């Protein structure tokens, strides 16, 4: 017959007596190694456990650990925590009490533990809670404390590795806010470690819809700032623009002028730096027309100027006006990853202006000479040809260059079907105009006849 199948025997009174005796013995001897102290309580714990009295067992376990804490015998505390938790058929209630005592000691600011002792105690409690669903909240907390200790010691790699092993999204004992906060810490440490791939994978555990809840606004801002740290090194300006736009559309940010200024100006800047695409163009127009952003853009002339330039079919001069050029180059968002990245952003802005100008020219000309195109762009012929070739390679433009003649053709050749459709469309429009004209002539004639008869 197993221990769990035996009937429960109430050992509460017996446990209280043994705990009182052990305390008295400790007051006399002041020695935890006295057989009448810890050893006697261990025997008492065994009897309570074999009697299936979980509450009494927990009380005895907690009493042993409290005696160790009172004497600041940390080695005894750690050893007994491990011993009691691993005893055969130990009850969930007792293990929960053991872990609670360990956490209480770790959070007790009145008694300072050295880092080595704290780390050993944390590792012991992590082992105790490993695989126990009823202690998942405590395990998550202990793992985070161990990770924080490693980070404080300067071992960021170990801190990140410790924390990433916790699949906190599966823990039912934690609230939604606690889970998101935990995952954001995992992402932060992975970025600090330099493991951007794993940081991105971890970020996917956070649902963007969840971040829109009112009580998670601070975590939303924190999440998108971490994503900005990731994307700035991935050369992904459009993703950065979306991150800052999400930050801007946060209530707490709207209430702080410095925050929304930074978020909105960064949105405009990274949209200007983004490769032209329907999504980028659409977002530019949405930002300009947004009821919340439009009035605020009036206070950010450089941001509004950038968006207006790239949404208007006109050639843009580069460099920009001195005021706007200086404001763009001094923007804090371009200085977050060092001088090399800053220089890359400056080169990208020049490239985007040139690409915009080429698209504008292609919209007005079917063909023109390379010399004229270079003159319009303010570039040499070779540089203009290079940019056109790059845009064609990226499928951002249709063009053919006749080098012997020095001519570039932007008009895409039409298939016979397309020519026929265009011709039919033109004939239809012409017949419609003829019909309208005849109707107006007849109307005028009838009105003239009535006037004569009158």
């Amino acid at each position: 017959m197993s221990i769990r199948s035996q009937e429960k025997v109430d050992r509460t009174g017996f446990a209280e007596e043994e705990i009182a005796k052990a305390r008295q013995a400790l007051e006399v001897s002041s020695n935890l190694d006295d057989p009448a102290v810890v050893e006697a309580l261990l025997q008492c714990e065994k009897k309570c456990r074999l009697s299936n009295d979980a509450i009494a067992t927990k009380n005895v376990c907690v009493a042993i650990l409290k005696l160790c804490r009172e004497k600041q015998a940390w080695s005894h505390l750690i050893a007994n925590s491990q011993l009691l938790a691993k005893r055969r058929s130990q009850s969930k209630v007792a293990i929960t009490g053991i872990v609670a005592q360990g956490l209480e000691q770790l959070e007790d600011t009145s008694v300072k533990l050295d880092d080595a002792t704290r780390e050993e105690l944390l590792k012991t409690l992590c082992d105790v809670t490993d695989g126990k669903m009823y202690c998942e909240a405590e395990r998550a907390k202990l793992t985070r404390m161990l990770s924080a200790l490693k980070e404080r010691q300067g071992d960021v790699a170990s801190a990140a590795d410790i924390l990433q092993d916790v699949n906190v999204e599966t823990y039912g004992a934690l609230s939604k806010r606690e889970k998101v906060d935990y995952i954001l810490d995992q992402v932060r440490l992975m970025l600090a470690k330099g493991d951007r791939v794993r940081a991105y994978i971890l970020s996917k555990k956070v649902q963007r819809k969840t971040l829109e809840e009112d009580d998670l606004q601070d975590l939303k801002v924190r999440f998108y700032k971490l994503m900005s740290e990731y994307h700035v090194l991935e050369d992904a300006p459009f993703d950065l623009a979306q991150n800052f736009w999400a930050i801007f559309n946060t209530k707490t940010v709207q209430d702080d002028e410095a925050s929304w200024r930074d978020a909105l100006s960064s949105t405009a800047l990274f949209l200007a730096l983004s490769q032209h695409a329907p999504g980028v163009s659409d977002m530019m127009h949405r930002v300009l027309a947004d009821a919340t952003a439009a009035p605020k853009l009036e206070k950010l002339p450089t941001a509004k100027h950038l968006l207006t330039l790239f949404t208007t079919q006109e050639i843009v001069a580069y460099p920009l006006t001195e005021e706007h050029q200086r404001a763009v180059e001094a923007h804090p968002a371009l200085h977050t990853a060092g001088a090399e990245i800053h220089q890359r952003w400056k080169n990208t802005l020049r490239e985007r202006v040139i690409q915009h100008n080429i698209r504008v020219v292609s919209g007005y000309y079917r063909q023109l000479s390379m010399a004229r195109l270079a003159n319009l762009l303010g570039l040499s012929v070779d540089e203009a040809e290079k940019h056109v070739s790059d845009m064609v390679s990226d499928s951002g433009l249709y063009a053919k260059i006749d080098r012997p003649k020095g001519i570039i053709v932007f008009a895409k050749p039409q298939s016979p079907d397309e020519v026929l459709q265009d011709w039919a469309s033109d004939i239809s429009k012409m017949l419609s105009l003829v019909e309208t004209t005849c109707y107006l002539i007849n109307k005028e004639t009838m009105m003239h006849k009535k006037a004569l008869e009158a």
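Strands lie at 367-369, 400-402, 407-409. Residues 416-453 form the longest helix (38 residues).
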